[in-house]
Design goal:
This protein has 327 residues and is an alpha/beta fold. The protein has helices at residues 15-31, 68-77, 117-120, 150-158, 185-201, 249-256, and strands spanning 2-9, 36-38, 62-63, 81-90, 93-102, 105-111, 132-134, 137-143, 163-167, 204-214, 217-220, 224-226, 232-235, 241-247. The protein has one domain: Carbon-nitrogen hydrolase (Nitrilase/N-carbamoyl-D-aminoacid amidohydrolase, 4-Layer Sandwich). It is built from six helices and 14 strands. Strands 1, 2, 3, 4, 5, 6, 7, 8, 9, 10, 11, 12, 13 and 14 form a 14-stranded mixed sheet that branches. Strand 8 (137-143), helix 4 and strand 9 (163-167) form a beta-alpha-beta unit. Helix 1 packs parallel to helix 2 (68-77) and helix 4 packs parallel to helix 5. The longest helix is centred in the first third of the chain and has 17 residues, at 15-31. The chain is globular, with a radius of gyration of 19 Å. The chain starts with a strand and ends in a 71-residue tail after the last helix.
Length: 327
């Protein structure tokens, strides 16, 4: 059995304060017995303050993926796995990145592939989605908007990931403000995508998010752990806290795939436009069959208002100390 944790927390521009908060969250996760904790996107230095026209003089600080800040988190992780998001500087470009670290070093490194228009003004887009090996098994990482696209999570699942961490700095709607964050259109989509990506791939899904405000953006938290059946096992709400769930990852996935095995029953030969249909040269390690995935992308700004009906108890009282003032 493993205990897995996802965090909702606020992170501002100050890197030293970010590292202090990261240390506090890791300590809290360790006290809760977690083997893995997933921190939000922008855990080092925060996220953008404006998605329409980002101010070039107010961007998050960019750090080297092998620099002292990441090495510091690696030392803090010890025998735990810690996933965190940050603005990466490499080759003169900025990337919206995530790393998964352990006391032994960096195990996984990912650059966000899918970008909303405002981000594209600041960040370069990643070009690779791949799983990686960890002491807890094979994992994958995505960064917020990536989960809007079913193909991203499917790629990781086909690459053998049993756990996917999606690190977010996902704000409330900019065009349709709700009186309460829990009623926000983007908050509903955020929950919907988390549950759908877990259920359609029959994997364990850990979703983190920022809380509080940054410039004109408000973040709604809603960190969660989702099982391979799409059930929310633990969650936070708008305030900072840890969602912690205990489960046997491989056993739960085997149980979910016992009768209906979504990955093994795919039919890639009939997907896509007619001119592009051809047999998939890659084989999945399982039985052949058919898949029920539609392949349809749901854009986060389509104006849909799904109600996934997620009323699960969080199982752990949120820790208001994870919100705090902007750094």
């Amino acid at each position: 059995m493993l205990r897995l944790a996802a965090a909702g927390a606020h992170f501002g521009r100050d890197l030293d304060r970010s590292l202090e908060r990261i240390s506090s969250i890791i300590d809290a996760a360790r006290r809760a017995g977690a083997a893995l904790v997933v921190l939000p996107g922008g855990a080092l230095g925060g996220y953008l303050a404006d998605l329409r026209s980002p101010d070039p003089d107010a961007l998050p600080p960019a750090v080297d993926a092998a620099g002292p800040q990441i090495r510091r988190v690696t030392a803090l992780a010890g025998d735990m796995l810690v996933c965190l998001g940050f603005t990466e500087l490499a080759g003169g470009q900025r990337w919206n990145s995530a790393v998964c670290v352990h006391g032994d070093g960096v195990l996984g490194h990912y650059r966000k592939v899918h970008q909303p228009s405002g981000e594209a003004l600041v960040y370069a887009a990643g070009e690779r989605i791949a799983a990686f090996d960890t002491p807890l098994g094979r994992m994958g990482m995505l960064v917020d908007y990536d989960k809007t696209f079913p193909e991203a999570a499917r790629t990781l699942a086909l690459d053998g990931a049993h756990i996917v961490a999606c690190l977010s700095a996902w704000p409330a709607s900019l065009t349709r403000r709700a009186e309460r964050l829990a009623q926000d259109r983007q908050a509903r989509l955020f929950d919907l995508y988390d549950c759908a990506r877990a259920a359609e791939n029959q994997i364990v899904w850990l979703s983190s998010n920022q809380t509080g405000t940054m410039g004109g953006l408000s973040f709604f938290g809603q960190a969660k752990v989702v099982g391979p059946g799409g059930d929310v096992l633990a969650r936070t709400w708008a305030k900072g806290g840890l969602a912690v769930a205990e489960l046997d990852v491989d056993a739960e996935i085997d149980r979910a795939r016992l009768v209906l095995h979504h990955l093994a029953e795919r039919r890639p030969d009939v997907y896509g436009p007619p001119e592009a249909r051809k047999p998939d040269p890659e084989e999945f390690h399982g039985k052949p069959g058919r898949d029920g995935e539609s392949g349809r992308d749901m854009d986060a700004d389509l104006g849909l208002d799904p109600d996934p009906g997620l009323d699960a108890d969080p199982g752990l009282d949120p820790d208001p100390g994870l919100d705090g003032d902007p750094g």
